[in-house]
Amino acid sequence: MPTPTPDQERPSVLPGDYNPAEYSAEYKLLYLQGLVADKAYEAITEFLERQSEYEIANLLESFPTQNRLLIWAQVPENLKGEVLAELEFDTRQPLMENISSKEISLFTQDLDAQDISEILDTVTESVRSSVMATLDEDIRVQVNKLDTYADWEVGSYMDPDLIQVSDSVSLAEVQNWLRENDELLDDESQELLVVDQSQQLLGLLSLVDLIKHDQSTLVSELIDTAVTINDRLDIQDAAAIFRSEDIRFAPVINSYGELVGQLNGEDIMEIIQDDVDSTMKNLAGVSQDEELFAPILTSAKSRSVWLGINLCTALLAAAVIGQFEAVLAQVVALAILMPVVASMGGIAGSQTLTVVIRGMAMGQIGGSNRLWLLNKELWVGAINGIIWAIIMAFIAQLWFHDIKISAVIGFAIAINMTAANVSGISIPLLLKRMNIDPALSASVILTTVTDIVGFMSFLGLASVLIL
């Protein structure tokens, strides 16, 4: 069956034997919107029963708060715990306000420590204590371990539930143990963690080696080297290691070399996605905590701070223009052309800024290559500045038939685009050295620089050449 598109009319019902994978996320959203509008509660429940916890979480985050509560009430009980763990904090919190500790205990009884820790971050201390008292001892220990780490540390993201074997046992013993505990391995498992008697990590045992070698062979003879991650390392640095080493998972050790957990590729992908979302919001001057369907006043408040900062920078640029009131009053053409200079500089600077911030996020900028990049952007800005200066000067000559005006706009564009490219790399590097997130404030500073340099060069040259 062909995949329906959002442009198609929403069906009143979906086929009883339909395959959810054949329908796009947006198509499902349109279908669910119709069910919510009709208050078709039974149909909502039937629809949600066919979705995974990831799909349900995505659908919930695609509705305003009031509709989320309605949909949440229809989520199958056996999926509520997994759905809660997949939701963003701001989406999860309102859904849990009226849920008792007894209900939360039921939701979490089959979840792993990571998901339980995620859910309990949303509740009060008294509810947390009540839920923790109902957990199995092993799970409770793991949840408490996760909670000892700061939000930015690897330990708070690791999976403390490990499949580890001793280096002193034979391959036959390992295989027998895995058969007796067949729930330990999932479809993605390819290696086992090998430790000694003191829980020191020794390396990895691949499942291929486990099968193909003589079963009397000791595990210690087949240990592969493992790329390890320290539990106190910044999670962003850990993500960079995953990218550079091209690994699917990494054992997590503490400062004593003891194995405490493992960091999985899916967790790193989530971190990278969150980092991308955060960077995009910061570049636009939007709070990291603002979600798409946040209440109106919440969104307005979170954005007003950067709007105020932007207003201050705009007033600063306006003050620069005010210093050249005399030349603007005499030559109207300058007022017409002035926005072109600022716009060309702003675009050139933004291009550089985007590339640089991405490179910084990927861990690609540091040491001696910073000077090389600065020199590169200087020449890129100069070359593009000269090219577009000539083009704009030619256009201005055709438009106003004044060689002085053409020269002013040409020189101003060349100067501003060069300065914009240099600023696009130097500003984020300077902010990083000051321990300020470049994505959060670099764009505002860059806009101010390109506006002021553009207006100063344009109007300053006009004052010298025309007046």
TrEMBL record:
TM region(s), chain numbering: 305-324, 330-357, 378-399, 405-431, 443-466
Protein origin, superkingdom: Bacteria
Positions of the CBS domain: 158-221, 222-278
Pfam families: CBS (PF00571), MgtE (PF01769), MgtE_N (PF03448)
InterPro entries: CBS_dom, CBS_dom_sf, Mg_transptr_MgtE_intracell_dom, MgtE_N_sf, MgtE_transporter, SLC41_membr_dom, SLC41_membr_dom_sf
Entry keyword Metal-binding: yes
Membrane topology, as annotated: Multi-pass membrane protein
Annotated keywords: CBS domain, Cell membrane, Magnesium, Membrane, Metal-binding, Transmembrane, Transmembrane helix, Transport
Subcellular location: Cell membrane; Membrane
Main location: membrane
Family: Belongs to the SLC41A transporter family.
Quaternary structure annotation from Swiss-Prot or TrEMBL: Homodimer.
Known role: Acts as a magnesium transporter.
PANTHER family: MAGNESIUM TRANSPORTER MGTE (PTHR43773)
Protein name: Magnesium transporter MgtE
